[in-house]
Structures are given as structure tokens and as C-alpha cells.
Amino acid sequence: MTDxxxxxxxxxxxxxxxxxxxxxxxxxxxxxNIEGNSxxxxxxxxxxxxxxxTIKGSSSMMMFNNISKxxxxxxxxxxxxxxxxxxxxxxTRLSDLVFSTIDFISFEISKIEKGNExxxxxxxxxxxxxxYLDSIxxxxxxxxxxxxxxxxxxxxxxSKENVSPNSNEFIAKIFFQEDCKMxxxxxxxxxxxxxxxxxxxxxxxxxxxxxxxAADKIIEDGFNMVFRSEEDYDKxxxxxxxxxxxxxxxxxxxxxxxxxxEEIKKKKVDLEEQKKKTINETLKxxxxxxxxxxxxxxxxxxxxxxxxxxxxxxxxxxxxxxxPEIQNLxxxxxxxxxxxxxxxxxxxxxxxxxxxxxxxxxxxHKMHRIVRDMNKQLDKNTRLEISGEETEVDKNIxxxxxxxxxxxxxxxxxxxxxSTEERIxxxxxxxxxVSLDAVNTGGDxxxxxxxxxxxLNREKLLEKASKNNLLTKSPEDMSDKEVFSLILLPGxxxxxxxxxxxxxxxxxxxxxxxxxxxxxxxxxxSEKDVGTTINIKIPLTLAIIDGMKISVGDSIFTVPTNTIxxxxxxxxxxxxxxxxxxxxxxxxxDVYPVVRLHExxxxxxxxTSLLEGILVMVETEESNYCxxxxxxxxEQQVVVKPIPGYLMQYTVKDSGVAGxxxxxxxxxxxxLDISGISNKYI
Amino acid sequence: MTQNNEEKVEIQEEDTQKxxxxxxxxxxxxxxxxxxxxxxxxxxQPITNIPEVPNYVKGIxxxxxxxxxxxxxxxxxxxxxxxxxxxxxxxxxxxxxxxVGLIVDNVSEVVTIKEDDVVPPPSYKTGFQNRYIKGVGxxxxxxxxxxxxxxxxxNEEKQNINEIELRGRQI
Lengths: 682, 171
Description:
The complex is a heterodimer of chains A (about 675) and B (about 170).
Chain A: H1 2-8, H2 10-37, H3 42-61, H4 65-84, H5 91-113, H6 123-139, E1 168-176, H7 183-194, E2 198-204, H8 214-221, E3 223-229, H9 233-242, E4 246-254, E5 266-270, H10 275-284, H11 300-321, H12 332-356, E6 357-359, H13 361-378, E7 382-387, E8 392-394, H14 395-416, H15 420-425, E9 432-440, E10 444-451, H16 458-467, H17 480-485, H18 508-517, E11 521-527, E12 531-539, E13 544-552, E14 555-560, E15 564-568, E16 575-577, E17 583-587, E18 590-596, H19 597-600, E19 614-619, E20 624-629, E21 631-641, E22 657-662, E23 668-672, H20 674-681
Parallel strand pairs in A: 7-9, 14-23, 18-20
Antiparallel strand pairs in A: 1-3, 1-4, 2-3, 4-5, 6-8, 9-10, 10-12, 11-12, 13-14, 13-21, 15-19, 16-17, 17-18, 19-20, 21-22, 22-23
Helix pairs in contact in A: 2-3, 2-5, 2-13, 3-4, 3-7, 4-5, 4-6, 5-6, 7-8, 11-12, 13-14, 14-18
Chain B: H1 2-17, E1 20-26, E2 29-34, E3 38-43, E4 57-63, E5 66-72, H2 73-76, E6 89-95, E7 98-104, E8 106-112, E9 118-119, E10 133-139, E11 142-147, H3 149-152, H4 155-170
Parallel strand pairs in B: 2-11, 5-7
Antiparallel strand pairs in B: 1-2, 1-8, 3-6, 4-5, 6-7, 9-10, 10-11
């Protein structure tokens, strides 16, 4: 059954995972708020209850029983809290329970994403929740509250008992929004929502799950239900209208001998009229995203394909307009047309890029959870400060950033921030501070992770590095920056004892690798007892850059235009050599090192004298230097293609090549890694 | 239903590919590659050199917008390198979604070798190329050394890649 389910109801499954993941994020945020304020409000309780309720419904419908069981028990807990208005809760224990539930569910969802069965065992967690519920029940014994039983079957789950003589009979017809999908599940959720206040329910379509046409029937004829309730007409109408994705409701009160005769009311309510309400709802409820008809969600793969296509168009454009066959011809109209084409292409490219840009905020906010867990685990007191969350970065880059950031934050808390006693002894604020910031600097985004902990210890790092044979220079010759960069080497870990979170020695080098994978780099600054600052510089977008083509022998290299300061012919009197024979050039009273491209890449070139070729001054964040090449060929937009995976096993990445680009004549040009060259050869 | 059909098609496809080898020459020796790995054969292309790679990795080529690394199989098998000419070919193989081009002297033909006609390679552990040979195929016009595509990116190399990927996942 479940197999069929996975194969045939992909969209449903996708929707389920999407919604559940979003709910989990929302829940986490609420929880962090509760912890931050150390109070729980009615809204919070209602929200948690609502989320649990929704997931319970959808997961039991998708037959993920463990998820539905655990949400059910948490729902019971919050139901009790809500009904009894209990505010003197043990918030730590409560949030621990909810957090472990979030973890459990997220883990199960990740299993589903991989196509596996969510087979985690929830019983331990469920019984913990039950224990807690029992303990508050004992504290608040005055009034017994009947908790909903876990019904095994999905039909007729609403108890037919408790028919109160005061109840009236109602007939309701509900239509859901056109594109809400899974109408049968929406109906089911609605029933669940009302389960507490209605009884003797019967509905058409009768069978919401096993009847494959149920959803279609609901779209066609609406979801029809007949039920009894003690609530009055208006309240019921409100409740039904508030149901998720409900487009319109027709509610009719049936005259009943049990009830005193009352006027039959019939109203058709259109939610369009209540825009204000909808807006509120949208803010509260992430599922109502679809309500905003101006936003569509698109599969990332399609976006990637579009991006690739635009890349191909950019290449093809230069293949056409810079075609050697027309190079020396005077073609006025052609030139005009190709300028137009170029302009349109640029616009197209900008739009496609902008679609892919998303804010970094959510990625940052996920770190709150890490800080919270680490504080608990390590018994530290640290707060996380976030700024620049509106900075936009390419979707692909955001995806790669999460893990490294998490690791760096963990490192900061584990290795950086001192214990409270230590901080007091040092005269620091007893609360540690880790801040995350993102700034857009034009071509790049700089992400800063800063802590006010104990800082990196130069001596300790050196000692460790020499123990692991990682030193390539004598310690005295190394600048602080070089020493700090040691922690980025594979197989380096300074923490003596390995903790659950960091210090396994596979840390920072992998962080460095993943940052480099998206074309970024890492800088570390640190001061003893003041703290450590880690700067991650990443390109705004991966795909297309402006490049300057320079030739060396037969090869053509591309230098990202934004790194070029100037280019010039060298004058003999400006050239200097230092004692070790390294070449330098004097420009406006500053001395810059010279890197000969033909030497570092082992190429044959006829121009070996610095006076013959051309010098291109490039800048990195630390320093400027000059590249020596044969000549400059011109500027061109290039599509950055990664170095093929097969070659990654060699040290290509560290050799000063950032990627490849295909030129207008279909030749491949290597894109130079300006800071990589500086690190390696200067 | 549809799934079944698809499966059938797949099985058929595999059947038509089974036992079929693309043969190519390095000097006088004839080698065979399982056809299912081969995506296409192209003439020699302009190759862009890449720094810091072993000598048998010649560089990268641009195959209709796709960038593919190329290996000189002669150099890889420690044979004398020869000048590339118009007979030189690049066989593009696709293993685990990774495309690699193999530079060979020339491509001969596609032959079918029955499983019964394939014998395991002699077990000299020292031979360089034996490491890459899965079996020796007999056909009417002589023996063919059947290459193990997976091992061609040698064990250690493949492992390296796997390790890198694994480590990437672990962070």
C-alpha cells in the first residue's frame, strides 16, 4: 500500500513534506521565542496545537503512523494546556519535548525524502510526553478533561456519543480553494479541527481516503456534511471559514424537534470580502502561501535548466557576433541587431539571476537552534545576534552555506566562548555573544561569524600543527594570519577532548572545501580574549562573470574583471629583484610582486622578458600583485563552469584555477583564481 | 502497467548491449570497452591543459558546451606516447554520471563476444595494464583485452573521489 502511495501520489507526498518542513521551521521559531521570553502565551499554545493537529492529520493520511502518533500525543499535551489555561509550566522541559519531536519528525521526513520508509520508533518520545502530561495533570487535578482517543481508522472517527439535548443539526457545504490540492485531506483536516465540538457527523463523499475520486467529488460538489453541535450558528460558520484553504461555506441550521424553532439561516460567505482576515491568516499561517496568487513555486531543477540555457545563449551570442568570418567586415545593420540582442540577453540574464536570488535570513535563523542546543549541552550562556538577513544570494550558494555555517557556529560555541565562570573571571559580560552578519559588497557577499570568546591561541596552534606535521615554514616566519589558517588544513583539531558537536578533526577543512566549491574563501582573524572573526567571501552568483581574456603562449586565461585594478607595460627602471630573486615592480612608490603566468602554469611563451609582455595588476582582499601575461585580448562575459569532478582528485583547485569558461570560438579558457594564486605563489 | 513496459524496454536495451564491446587499438594491441559505458566517439579536439595533474590527464575539451577531462590511455598504460593525427579518437565514457574522454590511437569496430569466450586475465600482479583488464575475449580475428571501465579511473583514484564526496557529506 505504502509503496503504491509513494509511486502514485508523488505530488501529495511532496506537498506533505513541504508543508511539514515548513511547519517544523515555524514551530522551531515559536519555541525559540518562548525560550527567549521565558513565557508562553495563548497564541503560542494555540499555534503549537494547530501545527501538531495539522501534521497529525496529514501524516495519518499519508500512513506515516509514527509521525501521527507523536504529534497526537503532543497535541493532547497542548490541548490540556490550552483548555486548562496553565501558564506555570516547566518551559525547559516542555521545549525539550517539542524540540525532540521536531528532530524526530524532521529526521523521518528526511528518510521519506530519500525514498525510505519513515520507520523511526516514536514510543520513547511519546511516553516522555505522556509522563509530562501526567505530571501536569497531577498538578492541576481539579477538572478532568477527556482527551481524544487515537482512532485507528479514518472513517467515522468522530464519536457518536455525548449527544447533548441542546445540540442542533446543521448541514454544511464547503468548497476549497481551486488549487489547494488534496481536497480530501483538507476535508479530513477540517473534520479533525471540528472534532471537539461536533457530533453525529456524516459526510459525502463518505470515504475520504480509499475512494480515489473523493478529491474530485469535493471539487465538483463541495464537501457536504451533516452534524450536530451545541455551538451556535455564527460560531460554527466562523470556524468553518477559518479552516485551511476554505474558499466558501454554506451552512444551514436544520429545524429540529430537539431544538427550539429558530429561523433558518442561510448565508453564503465569500472570503474575498474579508481581505483583512485573509491577510492576518497569511501572516500566521505559512500554508496559506498559495492564497497569494502572485507567487508561484517552481522546481529548482527547472531553474537550473533555465540558467544553463541562458548560459548557452550568452556563449552562442558571442559565437555569432564575434564570429571570425565577419570580424573585418563593415556590417552596420548586423552590428545594430547584435547590440540589441546583447541588450536583451543581458536583461534576460539579470531576470533569471534575480529569480534565483533568495534572502539569507532563513539560513541564519536556523542557527538559533544550534546555539540553543549547544548552550544546553555545554552549559554555556551565549546569545546569537543576526544582521543583514535581507542580503540576497544565489539559491545554490545558500544551499551549500547551511552546513559550513552550522559548523562554524558550533566551533565558536564549543572552542571560542568560555564558560560563564571563566567569563566572569575575565571581566567579560557573562553572556557570550556570537554574531552573524551578511553584507553585499557589489560582486561578493561577505558573511561574518564573530564571537567574543577566548580567541585562537597562536602557540597552541603551532604546537598542534608541528605535532601533525602540517607546518611548511618555520613558526617564526609565519604571520598570525598564516597560523590561524592552519586550522583549515585537513586533520587539524585543537580541542583536546572530542565533543558531540565539534572537534572531530574533520571540521574546518571540510568547511573550507564546501565554501571553495561555490567559489568563496575563508579568512580568520583572532585576538586573544577578544574573540575570533571568520569572514566568508562568496560570489553573489555562480554562473556568469565579466572576464578579461589574457593570452599566455597558446593558452587563454580569463581574469574576473572586478579583480583587475589596471594593466600596463613595465618600464625597465621600475623592475626590482629581492635577495631571493623574486621579481617586483615599483608603481607610484609602492612595490608589488610579479607573478609570471607562463612559469606557474608551465607554458611555453615567447615573451619571457617582463618588458615585452603586459602586466595586469589584480587585487585580493589582502594585497595587490601583478600578473605577467603576453597580451590582453579583450573583455567578455563568460559562463563559469566548474572543473570536472574527475579532476577534483588532483590539486587543480589549489593551483590557481577557479573554473573554466567556454569562449566565443568554442575554446576553453581557464578562469584564474586571483587569491588562490596569491596564496600559493607569493 | 506503464512501469512494467518501461522495465521491459530497459531489459531489452540491456540485452542488446550485453556482450557488445567497442574495440580500439593502441599500437598492435586491441582493447575492448563495454558498449554501455560509451556515450560517443569524437575526433581529436583542441585540448586545454590543466595544471597540477598527472601526465596522462591531458586536459579538458569542450564537447558542445560540456567540459570533459581527457586521459591519454597510452600514457596511462605506460606506453610510448605518439603524436595525435586524424585517426586519433576520443571515446567518451560515462561512469556514475561522470564523463571522461579516453584518447586512443583509433577505434576499430563493435564486436559481440559471448560470455563463454571471455577468460579471466592471466594473474601477473605486476603488470601495469592488467590492473585495468577484466578479461580476455576471444573472437575470430584474434584476442581482445577487455577493459574494466570502473578500474580505468584506477581503484585508488575512484576511492579518492568517493572519499572527497563522503567527507563533503559529513560536515
